[in-house]
Amino acid sequence: MKKRGKIRYIFSFVSLAVLLAVLIFWNINAGSVSVSIGDVFRILFRREGDETARNIIWSIRLPRILAALILGGALSVSGFLLQTFFNNPIAGPFVLGISSGAKLTVALTMIFLLGKGLTAGSAVMILAAFVGSLISMGFVLLVSRKVRNMSMLVICGVMIGYICSAVTDFVVTFADDSNIVNLHNWSQGSFSGMNWNNVFLMAVVVFIALVLAFFLSKPMNAYQLGEAYARNMGVNISRFRVELILLSSVLSACVTAFAGPISFVGIAVPQLMKNLLKTAKPILVIPACFLGGAVFCLFCDLIARTVFSPTELSISSVTAVFGAPVVLYVMINRKRG
After folding, report:
1. DSSP H helical ranges for the chain
2. How do residues 210-221 score in pLDDT, each as one tens digit?
3. Whole-prediction pTM value?
């Protein structure tokens, strides 16, 4: 049985890695300017080829691809951490209103700074999104003390999300500055407009958060077996919960700061990965979630860019199409169980 499990794990990770590689090259190749696979290899590994194609790949497509990869993985891991915290398969940054809270604080920060003639750097946006994530999470935690029913908690999270989104849309709609009006596209969710500085900063933040999440693998494994069991195993429950909240908030805040709110990735991908691996062990699910989130977001971004080209769909619209059925399936199976 153990041997069969190991074969499944190896097969799953190899399959995800192959899918990721295929989607990276597919995304590089696809677009208004098509570049052959041969030219892609020459441009990437030899720095040769047409100058226009090189600029398109190195300045536009690669930063966007890496952003989708990093942020998609971060959002998926954030969802897994929240599902572990609430012991609920449909808990996620978007559903619980955490992404919407981050969106609101980022929008307000940018409006305030632009009103003063200043520009918001990436670090400032991440910090603002983190504060918004924590505020939204705080509301959800307060509600969770009053409401024991997890379905009601999710509904309260959705309501918090709607309130934050409505306020954000109101502020963005009536903004005078053209730069603020451009926030509308960001508020719908998009990986466009990424540059190498953005990619470097998000990579650093997400990498640190993932390393810290790995350190929590053992406590998470114990926590999944019950709070009493985890406490008997020496887990400091109060500190552990704070660490989970902070890590999930950092990851979701990083995504929202750069790409806006993205729906259903944080719920659907962890469920798909647990079904693929046939285990919920954090030491395996965390890397699988990162790879799965990267694959999912690269695939959705490819569709968003190309299906109705030159019109680009919001990434949240596409992730909802593929993610919502997974959530419905999980909810139906949970009711049967």
Report:
1. 2-29, 37-41, 51-55, 62-86, 98-115, 122-146, 150-173, 178-181, 183-188, 196-215, 217-224, 227-232, 237-259, 265-277, 282-306, 315-336
2. 999 999 999 999
3. 0.91
